[in-house]
């Protein structure tokens, strides 16, 4: 099968944000997402509410947007509509990279053949996928640009993961990781760091092998942290934990949007797009998952290092003219706010230190989601 990349003439964006239902008293996950979707009127004709892997989860999928502000508007209206319906059901919305208390063995998979096939194949490891993420699509002109841009994005993958990290606990125990979700998800056979393809032809050859061997028929697709979405003509960045506030979603979306456009502009200028060896990408992901915004990341093939906050500030300055052109200056500036406030995993640990109870952390995160459309004033 040929993998035809449709291409996008403009660097449009689309956002997918995964939210879950919880009991307002116990904080436990509740598997009534299908009922929630049925009860919630869509606030925008371009928005979709999709069932996800677990039947406690609904995914908000925006339409094709020109910039982060447009996506934010759709996400904000959608979250408000879902929140209203959830409260009428006696439930609350919650999200993070992983749930800090619920035992994965108590949760059911959505009634979709595709998801049941994944469980059948992956067994115990697949049943552990009690995780939620943020996915951002950015339009790219043609397939020849896809893997060079993905190579560039992988050099910034630690930044995106570190500042979205929001999954420190698992079954009421602090894992010591900022993003336990990242460690869990890469257990699946098609998930994790993308291979370092240089050309579209190499990727097509790889995918042909996956189809011939039956991998894709078992899993539906390759679940790389960053991957091409051929049918949309986009690069899909999937490495982020699900942030608990909409302003964090906006910050990360703007950063990813600018990053794709920046690396694309290097191609237009005939300049080399930065790329790291596969093993450095693997190490960088582990460091970001473990240390979050305190990560010392590898920055080039000569194994030079820099702290993730220094890399963030460097690229925020590079992205400034791009953000102006895209109309996302305000949202990109929120990345600096996020660096000061610190990511969700830090705030969750602070809430646990205050209450000594991970259930209280769930309640804290529910409140963050309900009230977190605007970044704090610092």
TrEMBL record:
Pfam families: GCS2. It is an enzyme of class 6 (ligase). Keywords: ATP-binding, Ligase, Nucleotide-binding. The keyword Cytoplasm does not apply. One of its GO terms (molecular function) is glutamate-cysteine ligase activity. The keyword ATP-binding applies. Gene3D superfamilies: 3.30.590.20. One of its GO terms (biological process) is modified amino acid biosynthetic process. It catalyses: L-cysteine + L-glutamate + ATP = gamma-L-glutamyl-L-cysteine + ADP + phosphate + H(+). Transmembrane segments: none annotated. Its EC number is 6.3.2.2. InterPro entries: GCL_type2/YbdK_subfam, GCS2, Gln_synth/guanido_kin_cat_dom, YbdK. It comes from the Bacteria. ATP-dependent carboxylate-amine ligase which exhibits weak glutamate--cysteine ligase activity. This is Putative glutamate--cysteine ligase 2.
């Amino acid at each position: 099968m040929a993998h035809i990349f449709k291409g996008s003439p403009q660097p449009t964006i689309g956002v997918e944000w995964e939210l879950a239902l919880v009991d307002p008293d116990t904080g436990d996950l509740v598997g009534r997402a299908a009922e929630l979707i049925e009860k919630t009127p869509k606030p925008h004709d371009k928005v979709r509410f999709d069932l996800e892997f677990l039947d406690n989860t609904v995914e908000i999928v925006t339409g094709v947007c020109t910039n982060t502000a447009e996506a934010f508007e759709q996400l904000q209206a959608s979250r408000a509509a879902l929140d209203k319906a959830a409260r009428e059901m006696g439930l609350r919305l919650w999200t993070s990279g992983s749930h800090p208390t619920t035992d994965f063995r108590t949760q059911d998979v959505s009634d979709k053949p595709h998801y049941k096939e994944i469980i059948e194949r992956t067994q115990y490891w697949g049943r552990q996928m009690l995780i939620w993420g943020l996915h951002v699509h950015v339009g790219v002109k043609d397939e020849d640009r896809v893997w060079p841009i993905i190579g560039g994005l992988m050099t910034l993958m630690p930044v995106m993961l570190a500042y979205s990290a929001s999954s420190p606990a698992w079954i009421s125990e602090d894992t010591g990781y900022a993003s336990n979700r990242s460690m869990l998800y890469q257990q699946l056979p098609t998930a994790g760091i993308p291979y370092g393809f240089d050309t579209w032809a190499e990727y097509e050859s790889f995918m042909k092998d996956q189809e011939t061997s039956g991998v894709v028929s078992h899993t539906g697709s390759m679940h790389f942290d960053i991957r091409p979405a051929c049918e949309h003509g986009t690069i899909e960045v999937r490495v982020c934990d699900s942030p608990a506030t909409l302003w964090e979603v906006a910050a990360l979306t703007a950063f990813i949007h600018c990053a794709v456009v920046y690396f694309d502009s290097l191609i237009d200028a005939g300049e080399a797009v930065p790329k790291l060896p596969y093993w450095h990408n693997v190490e960088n992901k582990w460091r970001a998952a473990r240390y979050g915004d305190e990560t010392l990341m590898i920055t080039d093939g000569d194994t030079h290092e820099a702290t993730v906050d220094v890399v963030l500030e460097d690229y925020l300055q590079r992205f400034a003219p791009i953000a102006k052109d895209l109309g996302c200056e305000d949202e990109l500036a929120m990345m600096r706010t996020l660096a000061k406030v610190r990511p969700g995993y830090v705030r969750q640990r602070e809430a646990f230190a205050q209450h000594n109870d991970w259930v209280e952390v769930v309640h804290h995160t529910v409140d963050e989601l309900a009230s977190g459309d605007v970044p704090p004033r610092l």
